[in-house]
Specification:
- The protein has 2 domains: 240 residues, TIM Barrel (Alpha-Beta Barrel); 102 residues, 2-Layer Sandwich (Sulfite Reductase Hemoprotein, domain 1).
- Helices cover 42% and strands 19% of the residues.
- The radius of gyration is 23 Å and the shape is elongated.
- The chain starts with 11 loop residues before the first strand and ends with a helix.
Length: 361
């Protein structure tokens, strides 16, 4: 099996989530609802937690939002990061409210004394800061074109402000809606500094476009060992961001959890509705956290071979289906019985894997 060699970085912690230095790559999202609406915000936090999210960022556009963070933090099942722009006062309120991290560019706070106040409070609470460099937010007077080099140079301006105040609990991100710019900026920074990197393709759009852009950008860097946290930007339901992040990491063997379904794209040889079967099986196994590879194949040409590569699988012929476990046939079922048989075997395997995981702990 091919293993990706991760880039060596410093270690930081966001709440109880450790980042960098070889720790598991964390999946992050951002609430899409107003922070001041505490019940709605908490509900979305729990939805993200159930989907497998590790860290959540919340926008803090005003004082009311900053003050609401205290109650949200009390109820949150996940570490929360306050997203602050320009206002040192909002940063101080967020820190007092108990947040686990800040997304803050110190260079955007014009008064150095105000920066010192924020850093003093941050150090006292042992809270990390993410410096987020977006291609669309560079100083147009200094950087007329959002190149990778400009983004990295801008990041070091912010980093220097923090390091001059003896602060190194830093994570950095380089986001662009242009996938190639995003890739090159992260590559360039990775050669110059050992701070952890948060990956993202910003303003990626919705649906398939967003997933593809993020998968190309993040997948390229992750395969090169670059990236310690990530957020898949998708216009739509935030849970989709987490699901896409899990798929990206699982495809590269960087996080192995949940059901991975191997299914054929279908053709004229298919004797039943593969898509319907896949959807039905996904619904019934959505809460399984163990990493299990399940093949649902629509014919006997490629089906048996692919099913052999999975932990469990079915290959369907004209009148019946064959059930495999690690390449060995363990039963033959009618089309009406096959999904239930596959589900029973999957649930049984999940119990075994859970027991093994508990023994390791």
């Amino acid at each position: 099996m091919i293993h990706i060699k991760r880039r060596n970085t410093r270690e930081i912690s966001v709440g109880d989530v450790k980042i960098g230095s070889g720790h598991q790559i964390s999946i992050q999202s951002m609430l899409s609802v107003p922070t001041v609406n505490v019940p709605v915000a908490v509900d979305q936090l729990f939805r993200l937690h159930s989907a497998g999210c590790d860290i959540v960022r919340l926008g803090v556009p005003d004082e009311a939002s900053a003050l609401a963070l205290a109650e949200i933090k009390k109820q949150s099942p996940l570490p929360i990061i306050a997203d602050i722009h320009f206002s040192y006062k909002l940063a101080l309120i967020a820190l007092e409210s108990g947040v686990d991290g800040l997304r803050l560019n110190p260079g955007n706070i014009s008064n150095l004394d105000h920066v010192k106040e924020v850093i003093k409070a941050t150090k006292e609470k042992n809270i990390p800061i993410r410096i987020g460099v977006n291609a669309g937010s560079l100083n147009p007077n200094k950087y007329p074109h959002p190149t990778a080099e400009a983004m990295v140079e801008s990041s070091f301006e912010h980093i220097k402000l923090l390091e001059d105040l003896d602060f190194q609990d830093i994570k950095v991100s380089f986001k662009s809606s242009n996938v190639l710019t995003m890739i090159e900026a992260n590559r360039l920074f990775a050669t110059k500094c050992d701070y952890p990197i948060h990956l993202g393709v910003t303003e990626a759009g919705d649906g398939m476009q967003a997933v593809v852009k993020n998968a190309i950008g993040m997948g390229t860097l992750l395969q090169e060992g670059i990236g310690d946290t990530l957020r898949v930007s998708i216009t739509g339901d935030v849970v989709q961001e987490v699901e896409a992040g899990r798929f990206i990491l699982r495809s590269l063997g960087l996080r192995q959890e949940g059901i991975e379904i191997i299914s054929c794209p279908t053709c004229a040889r298919v004797e039943y509705d593969v898509l319907e079967a896949v959807h039905a099986f996904k619904v019934k196994t959505s809460q399984i956290k163990s990493y299990i590879r399940v093949a649902i194949m629509g014919c006997v040409v490629n089906g048996p071979g692919e099913a052999k590569e999975a932990d469990l699988g079915i290959a369907v012929g004209k009148t019946s289906a064959v059930l495999f476990r690690k390449g060995e046939v363990i039963g033959k079922y009618s089309k009406e019985e096959m999904l239930e048989a596959l589900l029973e075997e999957t649930l049984a395997l999940d119990k075994i894997k859970q027991a093994e995981a508990n023994d390791k702990d």
